[in-house]
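Q&A FORM
Asked by: J.P.
Topic: structure of Hydroxyethylthiazole kinase

PROVIDED:
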Amino acid sequence: MSAAVIGTGAVTPERVADILDALRDARPRVHALTNTVVQTRTADGLTALGAVPSMTTDPDEVAEVAGAARALLVNLGTLDRDRRAAIDVAVDLFASSGRPFVLDPVKCDIAERRRTRARALLARKPALVRANADEMAALGSFAGARLETGRLDRIADEARSLTVANGHPWLADVTGTGCLSGAMAAAFLAVEPDAVAAGIATAVTLGVAAEIAARRSAGPGTFAVHLLDALAGLGRDDVLALARINR
Ligand SMILES: Nc1ncnc2c1ncn2[C@@H]1O[C@H](COP(=O)(O)OP(=O)(O)OP(=O)(O)O)[C@@H](O)[C@H]1O
Ligand SMILES: Cc1ncsc1CCO
Ligand SMILES: [Mg+2]
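REPLIED BY: S.T.
REPLY: Here is the structure written out as tokens.
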């Protein structure tokens, strides 16, 4: 195990533990414009982590509700008319105020219209893109930070490239853990301006919580419940003992 020493400072397990503490002190509100499949998992996961979720997709009130949030998630999983309109309003607000948003281009590998929309959103300069390997490949090259999830999570920007080896195969059997990771990344970006550090904090905290949850679980169903408990109970000591960050 070795920590990164390039860029804006080493992203060590200690730094991840500090970022987690900062999140819990700040309790930032995160506006999650996400898909209909994962809404509850996302809200509960953000709350367990220590953030405050808001999730309205009504284009008429999103400006007011997202307007005071500290970070935004834009997840393209189920795009309906309201979500498309709300995304445009919220991204305009965040881009013009310099606040961070995370783009999760769900299933952009299987539909051309989604790819087109995802690329248009890339031009609005998300602080971080979170996607699985197939989605990331479909996006093509882009500037900025990324968190590619999978058995190994890969976090990179132009200057740095790291992997996080934490996690459990059951994460892939619970729908929406990837979507939750995008929301968690937004929460960390509310307190951590270095997107690579926020991406590593995301991969480590979700992965370590999954390892703790798996010890208490019989299969993906009980695992999903224990994952929330483990996120809520996650402490500095767990991060320091279990984080596996590699260059
Ligand atoms: N084989 C594996 N072993 C350990 N962790 C895994 C494995 N596969 C995925 N993960 C973890 O599962 C989480 C979700 O990543 P995944 O790449 O499956 O997202 P996704 O396909 O976008 O999921 P979804 O669309 O259901 O939200 C990440 O935290 C990732 O590290
Ligand atoms: C299954 C599914 N379909 C659209 S969004 C979603 C949740 C996981 O990405
Ligand atoms: Mg998956």
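FOLLOW-UP: DSSP finds ten helices and nine strands in the chain.
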